[in-house]
Amino acid sequence: MNAYNPIATLQRLEASGFKRAQAETLADELHSATTQLVTKDELTKALDAQANRLTLRICSVMGLMLAAAVTISKVFA
User: Higher-confidence residue: 74 or 3?
Assistant: First the structure.
């Protein structure tokens, strides 16, 4: 949820002495910067999903290594 209000920022900047074009540019840049932020919950979910994918990959590699070891031991037994 983005609680940033660019119109209110624009009005405050104009009230403090910024020219309209400057206030619009600054308010737009601030809006762009705030839309790239994430919440702690979103970050936690993304990190958990990444950890799950990594765990699956590690288990897959371990399974392949075990299968290769069994195959090699049968060939040379």
Answer: 74
